[in-house]
Design a protein that fits this description.
Elements (H helix, E strand, L loop, with lengths): L1 E2 L16 H5 L6 H8 L14 H12 L4 H13 L1 H15 L3 E2 L8 H19 L4 H14 L4 E6 L2 E6 L5 E3 L6 E3 L11 E2 L7
Parallel strand pairs: 1-2
Antiparallel strand pairs: 3-4, 5-6, 6-7
């Protein structure tokens, strides 16, 4: 089983435990909304046209510097157009989606800790069960095996909170280990953007 732990990494020492996400998610213009509003101009850009080994080498080197946009867009097209890669991705995600999830309690807790852990477990199960996008989110995280990264935005909707996958070509970083930033304009070669607030992203 997949051990879905508390993605939001905040617990409060009380029986009335509430996941941090329920407290911090806000209803604002999300990255997901912005992508829809911006339109799909990049959909008409086929990076496979005129592709050469030297160009691919340049994209890989740029990605190592944190300019991920063009490299991730190329990976997307390879996944879509290469039958072998597409089949591998499909089989991997199908196997992942078939797994069950659970919130587990650590072993060897004393009586007081176990009571608190059980209260937290019940609250988290209720929250994740009501998270309509949970299965989609798990698959998005699984796709990181092929892309090297995955981004889920915490979005408040009229139907409750959701984890919305945002395509990896919208994110850049300064260097190979710098913090990730949002690149809403898909600027080519960019290594800086809007810093990600950890409270709003997974």
């Amino acid at each position: 089983m997949i051990k879905i732990l508390d993605l939001f990494r905040k617990k409060t020492p009380s029986a009335g435990f509430t996941p941090a996400a329920r407290r911090t998610w806000v209803s604002t213009l999300s990255a997901t909304d912005a992508i829809v509003q911006a339109g799909g101009w990049r959909d008409s850009h086929n990076p496979l046209r005129g592709l050469t080994p030297w160009y691919v080498t340049g994209l890989v080197e740029a990605a190592q510097r944190g300019a991920q946009t063009e490299f991730q867009w190329l990976l997307k097209w390879i996944r879509d157009e290469d039958a072998v890669v597409a089949a591998l991705v499909e089989r991997s995600l199908s196997a992942l989606s078939a797994l069950e999830w659970d919130v587990l309690i650590p072993e060897h807790l004393d009586a007081g800790q176990k009571a608190l852990a059980e209260a937290q477990q019940a609250a988290l199960k209720e929250f994740y069960t009501g998270l309509r996008s949970l299965r989609e989110s798990i698959e998005a995280i699984g796709l990181a095996r092929f892309t090297g990264c995955a981004f889920l935005e915490k979005v408040a909707t009229a139907d409750g909170p959701r984890l919305c996958p945002v395509p990896p070509w919208y994110f850049v970083r300064n260097g190979s280990r710098g913090p990730w930033a949002y690149n809403p304009t898909l600027s080519m070669g960019a290594t800086t953007g809007i810093p990600l607030d950890p409270r709003g992203w997974v």
